[in-house]
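The following record pairs a protein chain with its ligand, PBG.
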Amino acid sequence: PQPHAPPNTAPEPHSPLALPRRPRRLRASPALRDLVAETRLAPSDLIAPFFVIAGSGAEEPIGALPGVSRLSVDRLLRQLERGLELGVRAAVLFGVLGAADKDPRGVRAADPQGPVARALREARRAFGSDLVLITDVCLCGYTDHGHCGLLKATPRGVVIDNDSSLAALAEMAVTHAEAGADLVSPSDMMDGRVGYLRGALDRAGFTGVGILAYTVKYASAFYGPFREAAGSAPQGGTSPDGMLPPRDRRTYQMDPRNAREGLVETALDEAEGADMLMVKPALAYLDVLWRMRAATPLPLAAYHVSGEYAALKAAARAGALDEASAVQESLWAIKRAGADLIITYYALEAAAKGWLG
Ligand code: PBG
């Protein structure tokens, strides 16, 4: 035996196999791998979500979302600035109210003095057009029953009434446009809301304010932590007289078993004038994202939702996953499947720690 023979090498002599193609050649070094990488992720691909509350100097950690807090407007501005420094140039804002400020019709959704409208004005003053400001348009954080639309009693029980909800959503969208939003993002899943909002914005003079539609939004268990963060869980149940609303969102959000239906929603939102489309959640619906990518030329966003974030954080904290690589792999997968943009609670952390690439 040779004294310096490395262990476990193939027996000598051997002649190379005649393999016409060896995919391993392009995996030999980080530089080669980067050279042929099909997917790139930059801070400018990310949209950071924020929960905005009234008051000042307030930062309320959210138990279910480690590292995420509800922020008063002044604290929000610091985070937006930090995002800008890291290259994250878009944010989506969710307003959070106390129970005392909610009512059956969610009237505070269109309050020009509410947390979102105030945040828009102050962020616009501070950052001008450097920052893309997006707002969630939905009633669930503003209604006492926690549904995304308005209720109506019918002979079949209490339902979420599609058409009367549209006017309330449009008022909310116009309030956000007046306060300086670049894009409004309806997440309520009422039929016809994109066209209705487009009309209302145009009539109010906001022809330049765009719509990022939650085109395909599933009735998902992965929104659990968000509902804790926003206090927006649907209240309801069954009662013999049918006077309670449904306890879940399945009469308006999509059935997780359906993918083709996503193409129906895609065609509708395009026809109604949406500027960008969204799929939500992300990782469990990459097939839907892929189909939509083929069906629409519009920019496509995916929402890596609260439950997806919380699951990664929990697994990382339990020592079961390496967080950096698990987050990077998740975000790459979402882009690879066809997303141009990703809304994620990891936006600032991933940008700060260099988990993109
Ligand atoms: C409001 C809304 C929800 C989310 C975004 N907008 C919650 C819901 O539909 O219950 C979820 C976002 C997340 O889980 O991160 N309708």
